[in-house]
Amino acid sequence: DEIALSERMGGGGDDACGATFRPPVRYTRWDSGGRIDSHRISVAPMLECTDTHFRRVCRLVSRRAHLWTEMVNQDAVVHSWRSKPEMLAYGDEEHPLTVQLGGASPERLALAATVCDAEYRYDEINLNCGCPSARVVNKKDVATCFGAALMRDPEHVGECLRRMREAVDVPVTVKHRLGVRPTEKSADDSMDSYAFVGHFVDVVSQASGVEHFIVHARAAVLSGLSTAGNRTVPPLRHREVHALADDFPRLGFTINGGVETLDEAAEHLESGKLRGVMLGRAAYRNPALLAEVDARFYGDEPREAFRERYAGEARVAGRWDADGFDLANDDRFGGDSGGTRTEDDRLGSRGSFFALDGTDATSVCVTRRDVLERYAAYGDAVCAMNLHGVARFPNALLTPRRLAKAVLGLGHGARGGGAFRRACEREFGEWTRRLRAGEPPETLSFSDLVTGAASEMDADDLDAPLASCAPARAHGEARYGRG
After folding, report:
1. Could you tell me the strand order of the sheet in which 124-129 lies?
2. Is cis: bond before 154, omega within 30 of 0?
3. Positive or negative, the Cα torsion across 335, 341, 345, 346?
4. What are the residue boundaries of the DUS-like FMN-binding domain, all occurrences included (predicted)?
5. What does R_g of the chain's alpha carbons equal in angstroms?
6. Is the pLDDT of residue 58 over 70?
7. b or e along 315-344 (b: 16 or more beta carbons within 10 Å of the residue's beta carbon)?
8. Strand, helix or coil at 116?
């Protein structure tokens, strides 16, 4: 509750970290409704990538894939969750959603987890034990190192997770690597072997009670290799993740790293031993990769069939108004279904519950054009709430640029995709010129920017089914058993 949270955050009253403060929106807990485990397909946490804007793009392509936030530092949450609520903000349609925390203090991680659970209603909280960035693994004070560096002390990881689990009412998970090495050329493999990662999983699970491990199927190099290099240089060892699932059948494992297509994801899930597959850069570079996820992995109706049925039902329902059929309040046809939040609440959480064609934005999108139109309407709402920042920093245009960055992947593989990206940048230059000339920010339209830039893409590609924009099968290991 609010008072207990305030006391744990170090005080009471209006000056405490939350006694009277609430986020600007009352977040609601997601109800899975007994559906298939949402973790079958996840989109990985990626710094400066998986912000709320990109998650909206993902949700317009897939309603079921499990989404993750960027990693959020424990101290940022503890100290700034009241003054910067946008740090953890999301829209209702982003569920199911995991927040990932970075840190090494059991006490602060527990407090940060409490905020994420009690105030923001995240569906799951994850501890990052896999980030290889020098900023987090090579701190002068070894005790404050986190990310992949935490794997060197599984007992401490277990204590952190235990404290987090005790503080919240939602599942707590851990994301880690298969091991760590001091440098790329180091001959010391004492912490980079199957025996080591097996010991890590055993100790952490016993000490904390955590039952779901998300495993990046590479080792992490703690020094001398960039973050990008750590995603490509250490070899993939998918079989070791499958071996963990064999050796710890009571635990759940999600595999991450090097999965480029849905065919590969299906192969990993074929044995039924893994709980899920996590897609990373492949989904960020080309969100259309998620287009068949709902039908293929969650048993939903294919999106093209849904759109055809939806249009037919809407035409029939349109003739029922005289009999008292309330189309506006039926969520099958884009209505509010009575008990959802008001429009003010929706815009307050930057929700994209609207579309240019009048349908519910949580329904499926079939083409690139569908996604771009709905996302552009959302972008207009976000920009309208950030006019002060747009006017104050005309050269930076931080919010509009973040909005555009999240949707650039839709140009992947399309004829004119590169021109689409360049047109966005060219338009931002024009925005800066207009603002510096004294034009009010209210005259700028994110929808116009996106629509104009999208016209650079081939019309046939814009209107092609999203599923046809997904990549062909990539080369890789044919089977992922123990052999």
Report:
1. 41-43, 276-279, 252-256, 212-223, 172-183, 124-129, 97-102, 67-73
2. no
3. negative
4. 43-295
5. 23
6. yes
7. eeeeeeeeeeeeeeebeebbebeeebbeee
8. helix
Q: How many whole angstroms separate alpha carbon 335 and alpha carbon 474? A: 41
**Letter string b/e over residues 3-17, b meaning 16 or more CB atoms within 10 A of that residue's CB:** eebbebbeeeeeebb
How far is Cα 422 from Cα 425, in angstroms, rounded to an integer? 5
Q: Which long-range contacts (C-beta less than 8 Å, at least 24 apart) are formed by 152-155? A: 152/180, 152/191, 154/199, 154/200, 154/203, 154/204, 154/207, 155/203, 155/207
Name residues whose C-beta falls within 8 Å of residue 312's C-beta, 6 or more positions apart in sequence: none
Nearest to 106 by CA among 132, 88, 127: 127
285-342 pLDDT per residue, tens: 999 999 999 999 999 877 666 566 556 555 554 554 444 334 344 443 344 433 333 4
Q: Which two tokens stand for residue 33?
A: 């409704």
Average pLDDT for residues 223-234, to the nearest whole number?
Answer: 92
Instruction: Say how far apart CA 154 and CA 203 lie, in whole Å.
Output: 6
318, 335 contact by CB (below 8 A): no
Query: Does the predicted model carry a pTM greater than 0.85?
Result: no
Mind telling me the catalytic residues? 131
Q: Please tell me the predicted confidence (pLDDT) of residue 337.
A: 38
Between CA 208 and CA 230 the distance in angstroms is 28
Name the residue with tokens 């999203």.
466
The token duo for 463 is 């209107």
> Cβ distance 220 to 230 under 8 Å?
yes
Amino acid at site 466:
L
